[in-house]
Amino acid sequence: MDNRRIGLFDSGLGGLTVMKELMQLLPNESIVYFGDTGRIPYGTKSVDTVIKYTKSDINFLKTFDLKAIVTACGTASAIALPHLANQYDIPVMGVVAPAARAAARATKNGCIGVIGTNGTVRSDAYRKILEKENPAIQTVSVACPLFVPLVESGYAEKAATKMIAEEYLKPIIESGADTLILGCTHYPLLKKVIAEVMGEHVTLINPGVSTAYEVKEMLGEKGLLAEEPHKEQYRFYVSDDPSDFAKLGSLFLERSISGLAEQVDIEQYI
Amino acid sequence: MDNRRIGLFDSGLGGLTVMKELMQLLPNESIVYFGDTGRIPYGTKSVDTVIKYTKSDINFLKTFDLKAIVTACGTASAIALPHLANQYDIPVMGVVAPAARAAARATKNGCIGVIGTNGTVRSDAYRKILEKENPAIQTVSVACPLFVPLVESGYAEKAATKMIAEEYLKPIIESGADTLILGCTHYPLLKKVIAEVMGEHVTLINPGVSTAYEVKEMLGEKGLLAEEPHKEQYRFYVSDDPSDFAKLGSLFLERSISGLAEQVDIEQYI
Fold first, then answer.
1. What ipTM did this prediction achieve?
2. Are B168 and B162 in contact (CB under 8 A)?
């Protein structure tokens, strides 16, 4: 047993969807969350910048006594983890590999769609892992850069969003994919419109869910599961104003975190 | 006469629309441009974070021998300049005051619309200056957070953009405004669809144009106009990958800046 905390980070508050899954699946675990709200988004930035920011996020989290770190951000998982994951003395997991494995298990016709930020799609990280899982799998990836601002602007249910989704998802529908990886933490919040556009026969993979299961499995295998939670079970840090974060974050988490978030000067953790 | 450079900065490359106006109006001036592409956008971030970033942008530019600094970013002009502009030994100008003055001159019915980022609209900076110009002026401000991602995703001419513009601009149309300030550097790139939605009788104010004229006026009054340009007349610095910037920036400027942009670690200029 190991009562140390799990560290979890994201470019902003989207990673709270992953945290919610972890909280449900592992109610004894204590978690410290960092959201890089001062430098969000990562999905439009260059490889070197995403690696630099991911390093500093991990360096900040490492100031706590942790047993594992989870990268909730799709872009950081896709771009930075291949360069960084093995450099630490504790496991550092991302969302890409668990989601790819879940998709490889789910597909029946061997054709998998991937949607994500520009950075995630450019990295080709999903295709590389899917090919390792099963070289016969066909992958079709499409960047959907407007999905994050549409979610953050409260446009999830609007007609314009459906119109944009129809255009983005066209190549994936045409490929015949029977499984679609929602490769960015915000995309599960567009699940309804994406499911409408893709049709009922397509399985949507939420990387947050797949990752939470693999975290549980990994902790179990290594004998690292927690016996009981810390007094302050959940801690939240952000690099921009914590009150804005707490307001929106309570929606993402479906529980109030008002007053629990603190600000950190992330640029110091180089 | 004063041959020192003008410093110009923006949260990203949108400020190049302001630089283009300056280059046309003042062909003898030498300009150094900084785009904070590693921390873009500013429009969704908190007041304190925008002030912090604006300070570091100015601190970096001050490493050059400058005679004036222009804040091309609408959000930094609206939020940070009221706190910072008087702290420097050279003039630091923003886009808000010149655009507000141009709008006050243009309006016939005294009703002016303002569109900008969340940060700009929350700051109420335009209304404050318009009231000083003429207390009888009515101001209607609307945040249009999707306009920047729509421009950056190449959606300026799409049907979804028109649908979103119709929704955003509705309160301004209903107010009867005869003048509309495009209060963010990206918005002039949506001029066509905004003009279609607003109708022909509404005057659109491009803050870049108004600012370039006021810069020329200010330099003339203070005897600071340049006699001849430096050998390297235009220099470009960014905080993310300079090659991405140069590609898109050449479109914004309508001239190639390929190979001219350099990267700077802006987080060091605190």
1. 0.91
2. no
